[in-house]
Design brief:
Layout: E1 8-10, E2 13-15, E3 19-21, E4 24-26, E5 31-36, E6 41-47, H1 51-70, H2 72-89, H3 91-102, H4 106-129, E7 135-138, E8 141-149, E9 153-156, H5 162-176, E10 180-183, H6 190-201, E11 209-211, H7 216-224, E12 231-235, H8 238-250, E13 255-258, E14 263-267, H9 273-281, E15 294-300, H10 304-315, H11 336-351, E16 355-358, E17 373-376, H12 383-386, E18 393-399, H13 402-409, E19 417-421, H14 425-434, E20 439-442, E21 461-462, H15 467-473, E22 475-483
Parallel strand pairs: 9-10, 9-12, 10-11, 12-13, 14-15, 14-19, 15-18, 17-18, 19-20
Antiparallel strand pairs: 1-2, 3-4, 5-6, 7-8, 8-22, 13-21, 16-17
Helix pairs in contact: 1-7, 2-4, 2-5, 3-4, 3-6, 4-5, 5-15, 9-10
Length: 488
């Protein structure tokens, strides 16, 4: 480890490219290049952690844990509320950096995504402080279930919506009394560095919140294998999730993972077709780099032609361009490697004879743009149907009746989300229950109640986040049992 580097300017904002360990900036002699998807050019040389930096961060979290845990929910809440206030006060700075770093639409970041981070900290601070311990009498004893902070937690977040997803995970961990080591994705690390600055400004004790930058196979692997950790939370691909799960299991560390999806968007003949088509075309938002997106359009045969006409009309309205522009609706992909991955899926589908109904090529809008694409597969077993592309690529299939719709919806290994369009309450309930997914929206999308459970089925994940489900994960539950009449 070396002396911390000077801050870099990104979108007019000063950002540290280094780790945040024990309340201080710490640099590494090795660096990695952070490329902006907007320009496809480097914007920072970021510290590249190895085992030494990871060990220092985990030990800082371990050392800070007793004091942080001892504060109790009420004692921790003021820190979290101050952090939330600082996020609200710095929306413009955070949005500008995240837009430059991962190319989400600037207006979305300003209006909802960054502010959701503030909501996360406030919500979990209040939920933890309002928790009522369960108590009862049984077999001559008085019993109480207590939440005990679990210990240092590793938080590993993906490159899409890095700031919001980091707050979504660290908020319940901190509120429950855990200390954290956050490892953001190497393709979009800078807004998490700004979050560490705000943690320091909010007055958190040193070591409660740590950030290590680095490559997943190096820093991430060293982090999840560290024997001093007591919890691991990860969002990313199923392949990486399996590796992390193995590492956590070796140390008997509880592990939660959200591992992507291949969600169905089911349109029945009694649906508001205009609303459904508009929503379907909206799945190209953030260039399709949204794990919850309904990427498999399943439309009832009787209305498929009308739906497709409406879909093309709304898809034609998309504007590919600079995500900082108010006119842009579809942003570039995150990285050249990811562009090649998305392109590979479409090229293989084309070679296999699947029908490309629109798009299917790189866009002249910029070096990392891919056209919004719709593919009609020859078979439900096709790779383009069964595997997550994570780009602006949708498939279109038709079904005859409710039974076939549910069968198609449940035909992949994934089970993160689903979307249903129907005007029938009975059908909404039947299909909503039958679709195998952690969350199913009916006639809406991306509405999130922070107290509701969130997570995936199948290869889409393990465990649940949200509300008390997250607070329980970051806690050890203890039963205190006292013989009645033995104390006073």
């Amino acid at each position: 480890m070396t002396t911390a580097a000077e801050r870099v300017r990104v979108a007019g904002v000063e950002v540290s490219p280094d780790h945040f360990i024990g309340g201080e900036r710490v640099a590494s002699p090795r660096r990695f290049e952070d490329i902006s998807p907007i320009t496809n050019e480097p914007i920072a040389e970021v510290s590249r952690a190895g085992e030494a930096e990871v060990d220092a961060a985990v030990r800082a979290a371990r050392d800070a844990f007793p004091g942080w845990a001892a504060l109790g929910p009420a004692g921790r809440a003021p820190y979290l509320h101050r952090l939330a206030d600082l996020i609200d006060a710095n929306v413009e700075r955070l949005a500008a950096v995240e837009c430059m770093d991962m190319a989400m639409l600037l207006r979305s970041l300003r209006a909802r995504v960054i502010r959701r981070g503030a909501r996360n900290y406030r919500a979990y601070a209040d939920l933890a402080a309002s928790y009522e311990e369960r108590d009862w009498r049984s077999q001559g004893t008085w019993n109480r279930v207590q939440r005990m902070p679990a210990g240092p937690a590793a938080i590993i977040t993906p490159w899409n919506a890095p700031f919001m997803l980091s707050t979504w995970k660290t908020a319940p961990a901190l509120a429950a009394g855990c200390t954290v080591v956050l490892k953001p994705a190497e393709w979009s690390p800078l807004s998490c560095s700004l979050l560490a600055d705000l943690v320091a400004e909010a007055g958190f004790p040193p070591g409660v919140f740590n950030v290590v930058q680095g490559i997943g196979e190096e820093a991430g692997a060293a982090l999840v294998a560290h024997p001093l950790l007591r919890r691991v939370s990860f969002t990313g691909s199923p392949e990486t999730g399996r590796s992390i799960g193995v590492a956590a299991a070796k140390n008997l560390v509880p592990f939660t993972a959200e591992l992507g999806g291949k969600g169905p968007l089911i349109v029945f003949e009694d649906a508001d077709l205009d609303a459904a088509a508009r929503r379907a075309a909206g799945q190209y938002d953030d260039a399709g780099q949204v794990c919850l997106a309904g990427t498999r359009l399943l439309v009832q045969e009787s209305v498929a032609e009308e739906f497709l006409e409406l879909f093309h009309r709304y898809a034609d309205e998309h504007v590919l361009g600079d995500p900082r522009s108010e006119h842009t609706t579809v942003s570039p992909l995150i990285h050249p490697d990811h562009l090649r991955r998305v392109e590979g899926f479409v090229e293989r589908a084309r070679r296999e004879g699947h029908r490309v109904l629109r798009g299917g090529r790189r866009s002249p809008a910029g070096p990392l743009f891919y056209q919004p694409t719709l593919i009609e597969p020859l078979s439900n077993d096709a790779e383009i149907v069964q595997r997550e592309v994570f780009g602006p690529v949708l498939t279109l299939q038709t079904f005859a009746d409710e039974e076939e719709a549910v069968s198609l919806a449940n035909s992949t290994e994934y089970g993160l989300s689903g979307i249903v369009y129907t005007s029938s309450m009975g059908r909404a309930d039947r299909v909503g229950r039958a679709v195998r997914a952690g969350v199913v929206w009916v006639n809406t999308f991306l509405v999130r109640d922070l107290t509701a459970p969130f997570g995936g089925m199948g290869i889409s994940g393990i465990g649940r986040e949200g509300g008390d489900y997250a607070l329980d994960f970051y806690s050890d539950l203890k039963t205190l049992q006292i013989l009645e009449g033995s104390t006073r």
